[in-house]
């Protein structure tokens, strides 16, 4: 690859609160410069920008202007930080949160530009959860009709996805629905802005748009949901583009925004979690990448097609062309630790952490690390934000068993970390039981900084952990896709091998601790089965909801 030794690609990761650009050398994946742009409107949850229009609970919107600002600011700043000649940039790739989806005109104009006072005209962020009732109806009808696509999503689709959100628009603001020519993932919309051509990537279409075996849910199914929904799929993409493919070339206008040469390759859009596999060079069957942060997403290519209970989805070519791509998830991980730090720690601990110059997380970790496995006498269920896999039930809640008058904050903190590791083991075992082998567990994301936590995962999973070598996995992954789109490598696997970064066996399980964890895990499973049917936890939630009026 010496011909590429002085050419560069740019990866742009559009997150929940900000967008990040990274400049990467094509020959070896070296990250030379990066810049972040915080979105001006962040997550729109209370009031529509520039209006008095208030939003209902569970709404979460975003502004397309914030995304374009990332191209205008973070990209040129990253190039400047890298100190490279922009003329040497040969391609740009992007990834987005998903399902973040917007209604647009036939020319790509977001409807919120025409009618900013209409909530449904705005892009719905992935965590917009106000379409749960619509998702419930889709699931019930699909189960009743035996729709063949339903098992591809572990038996349930999410309220976060395209069909649930679009049905909400139709039923709550039919006029906006009627004006929607294109219902498009932000992942594809941003690529449209860069290239001037509309493309639809297989990843979001498959995981978020129920595209399976060459088609969307049938018109008959959609009519049964609501006759007005019959023609919905005409607003989606009909021809899908492969990951790593060339979506188009940078337009003169977008060259003006970014300061990059007009005509460079723009990669087909992608999802932040899935593109991280390339960054970790984990794009072969059985390499499960866990992107561990506030929540954890698990993605894994495989040559086996199976119906794994409670997975988020399995999509042909969904991570790399030629393989099935699986996704599963834990809806609360770092968020649970944050909840405990914010609510479960006395002032004396906060003071002690401050005196030591440590975060409360780091302080609790240090105390917890001094214990032997099981010493706290606790076992917990990691369902404080519901359970995505394997139970797919957002109405479950957290459980901590075994507390006594001598239970200390570090005990609970450790038990919560262990609970998330047990949740991960449950997912791995569910895949394997369904006939999809997990050969390697590769950790990525913000929680890598907690080495004690990573060791617990190795011990609980009873397997070596590999770790990604970059702390900006999605942006690096997007840059790798850009290199493929630009023709610098033949495919994602080759580009990932040259440019991705992974440390094998970064954490090895300790036999004695793993044995001790087996006993605790058995108790976790018992609790999981007992509370997992929801009888008690749903009742508690109902009582809470009644009490809150
Ligand atoms: N030392 C730590 N140990 C464990 N969890 C931590 C620590 N520091 C921060 N966290 C948790 O990490 C999460 C943030 O992870 P990060 O990957 O940066 O974010 P995101 O998932 O939003 O990209 C927060 O939920 C926070 O509670
Ligand atoms: O569900 C997703 C992928 O399937 C979202 O993209 C993801 O959960 C958003 O993650 P983050 O908050 O880390 O940007």
From TrEMBL:
Keyword Transmembrane: no
Pfam family for this entry, one: FGGY_C
InterPro entries: ATPase_NBD, Carb_kinase_FGGY, FGGY_C, FGGY_N, Ribulokinase
EC number: 2.7.1.16
Group of enzyme by EC: transferase
Pathway named in the protein's UniProt entry: Carbohydrate degradation; L-arabinose degradation via L-ribulose; D-xylulose 5-phosphate from L-arabinose (bacterial route): step 2/3
Keyword field: Arabinose catabolism, ATP-binding, Carbohydrate metabolism, Kinase, Nucleotide-binding, Transferase
Domain Carbohydrate kinase FGGY N-terminal: 8-275
Catalytic activity entry: D-ribulose + ATP = D-ribulose 5-phosphate + ADP + H(+); L-ribulose + ATP = L-ribulose 5-phosphate + ADP + H(+)
Gene Ontology biological-process annotations: L-arabinose catabolic process to D-xylulose 5-phosphate
GO MF terms, alphabetically ordered: ATP binding; D-ribulokinase activity; ribulokinase activity
Domain Carbohydrate kinase FGGY C-terminal: 289-486
GO cellular component, one term: cytoplasm
SUPFAM superfamilies reported in the protein's UniProt record: Actin-like ATPase domain
Entry's family note: Belongs to the ribulokinase family.
NCBIfam families: L-ribulokinase, PRK04123.1
Name of the protein described by the UniProt record: Ribulokinase
Name of the coding gene: araB
């Amino acid at each position: 690859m010496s011909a590429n030794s002085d050419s560069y690609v740019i990866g742009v990761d559009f997150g929940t609160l900000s967008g990040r650009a990274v400049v990467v050398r094509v020959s070896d994946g070296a990250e030379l410069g990066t810049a972040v742009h915080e979105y001006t409107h962040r997550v729109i949850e209370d009031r529509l920008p520039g209006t008095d229009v208030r939003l209902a609970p569970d709404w979460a919107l975003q502004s397309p202007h914030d995304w374009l600002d990332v191209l205008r600011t973070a990209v040129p700043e990253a190039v400047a930080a890298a100190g490279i000649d922009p003329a040497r940039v040969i391609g740009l790739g992007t990834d987005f949160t998903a399902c973040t989806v917007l209604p647009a005109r036939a020319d790509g104009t977001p409807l919120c530009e025409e009618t900013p006072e209409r909530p449904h005209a705005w892009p719905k962020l992935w965590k917009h959860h106000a379409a749960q009732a619509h998702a419930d109806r889709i699931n019930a009808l699909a189960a009743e009709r035996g729709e063949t696509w339903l098992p591809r999503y572990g038996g349930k689709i999410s309220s976060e996805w395209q069909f649930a959100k679009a049905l909400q628009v139709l039923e709550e603001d039919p006029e906006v629905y009627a004006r929607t020519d294109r219902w498009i993932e932000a992942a594809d919309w941003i690529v449209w802005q860069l290239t001037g051509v509309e493309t639809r990537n297989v990843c979001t279409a498959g995981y978020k748009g129920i595209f399976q075996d060459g088609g969307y849910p049938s018109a008959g199914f959609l009519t049964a949901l609501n006759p007005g929904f019959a023609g919905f799929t005409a607003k989606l993409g009909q021809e899908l583009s492969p990951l790593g493919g060339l979506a188009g070339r940078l337009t003169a206008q977008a060259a003006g925004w970014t300061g990059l040469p007009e005509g460079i390759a723009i990669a087909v859009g992608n999802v932040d979690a899935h593109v991280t596999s390339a960054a970790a060079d984990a794009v072969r069957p059985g390499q499960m990448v866990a992107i561990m942060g506030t929540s954890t997403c698990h993605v894994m290519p495989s040559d086996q097609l199976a119906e794994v209970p409670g997975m988020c989805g399995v999509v042909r070519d969904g991570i790399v062309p030629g393989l099935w791509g699986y996704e599963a998830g834990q809806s609360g991980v770092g968020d649970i630790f944050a909840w405990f730090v914010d609510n479960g720690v006395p002032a004396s601990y906060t003071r002690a952490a401050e005196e030591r110059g440590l975060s409360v997380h780091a302080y609790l970790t240090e105390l917890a690390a001094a214990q032997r496995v099981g010493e706290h006498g606790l076992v917990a269920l990691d369902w404080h934000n519901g359970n995505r896999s394997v139970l797919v039930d957002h109405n479950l809640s957290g459980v901590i068993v075994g507390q006594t008058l001598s239970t200390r904050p570090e005990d609970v903190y450790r038990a919560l970390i262990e609970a998330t590791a047990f949740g991960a083991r449950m997912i791995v075992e569910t895949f394997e039981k369904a006939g999809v082998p997990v050969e390697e567990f590769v950790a990525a994301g913000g929680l890598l900084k907690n080495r004690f936590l990573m060791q617990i995962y190795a011990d609980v999973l009873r397997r070596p952990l590999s770790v990604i070598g970059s702390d900006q996995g999605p942006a690096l992954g997007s840059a790798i896709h850009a290199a493929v789109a630009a023709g610098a490598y033949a495919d994602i696997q080759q580009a990932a091998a040259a440019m991705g970064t992974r440390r094998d066996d970064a954490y090895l399980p300790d036999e004695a601790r793993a044995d001790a964890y087996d006993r605790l895990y058995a108790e976790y499973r018992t609790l999981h089965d007992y509370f997992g049917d929801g009888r008690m936890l749903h009742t508690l939630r109902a009582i809470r909801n009644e009490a809150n009026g």
